[in-house]
Amino acid sequence: MFGVVGGRWFLCNAALALSIVTIRTSKLNDYMPWAPTHPRGLSDRELELLTMMGFAVAVKSRKMASDLELYSTVFKFSHLVNLAICYLLDMSFVVAYLALLGSVSVLAPEMVDTSTSMVTELKPYEIDEWQKEDKDAGTHGRVRYSVIELMTLWSPPSQYFAPEFALLSLKYAIKGVRFGKVDVEKYKMVARKFGVDINATSAQIPSVILLRNGVEVARLPKVSDGKIVERVKLSAPMVESAFGLPKIMAEVKASNAKAGVDSDTKKSK
């Protein structure tokens, strides 16, 4: 359901969420430093915390739009309850649990529900089609932009940037401004086409390319003579400012109005 990256996120968080209760209710508890004062089995206070968590999740789940949001909420509350139980048992385990939680967040970043975004997952031939369509529009006096993210599934920075890019698409995607992404690990020819290094240590993953009428006019991170000009952690405000997306939207709306086209259809073409 989640794919490779999402499966890793789900399994790691599920294992961590269940860890404390599993230890407390099994023979593993007998080997813990807290065993002399906290025998095997959940105490009344621990049961109370778990009950409160169940109630909170039940209330919040009534307004959740997807299974992914439900799982994310359950994991977050579980981690909070586990930290509280660790505090009751042994303060040193609070530090250990936080360290494990930090490791999981890096190795298996939280999945993002982008089902409502305006980002199109592209194949190499579709990028070529977008560029041709935009160039053709330019020959007829219309202005069109494409914002394309080059990412990989294994890259934590790509996972962190995914919700940011989705938000940008929801804010700026109109007729004549479209957003797409391509997995350059799967489609290495796209990485070669745009001169993006996809090695594990690359500072170019993810990269965002801005095309105006099919021709690249900007990118982040910036590159000169094949070398990174600046190493950056991409964010929505950074891309918004560097590309001038508000001005681009205004430019495209003016072009659409001149051509008698409705900009507010929220369609990518």
Report on this model:
With 269 residues, the chain is of the alpha/beta class. The protein is built from nine helices and seven strands. It has helices at residues 3-24, 44-61, 67-89, 91-107, 124-139, 156-172, 188-194, 236-243, 245-259, and strands spanning 119-121, 145-151, 177-183, 207-212, 215-220, 223-224, 227-228. Strands 1-3-2-4-5 form a five-stranded mixed sheet, sandwiched between helices. A hairpin with a 2-residue loop joins strand 6 and strand 7. Helix 1 (3-24) packs parallel to helix 3 and helix 2 (44-61) runs antiparallel to helix 3 (67-89). It is elongated, with a radius of gyration of 24 Å. The relative contact order is 0.11. Mean pLDDT is 87; it is low at 1-5.
- The rough form would be described as elongated
Rg from Cα: 24 Å
Q: What is the terminal separation in angstroms? A: 29 Å
- Total number of helices: 9
How is the biggest beta sheet arranged?
5 strands, mixed
Describe, in short, the structure shown:
The protein is an alpha/beta fold and 269 residues long.
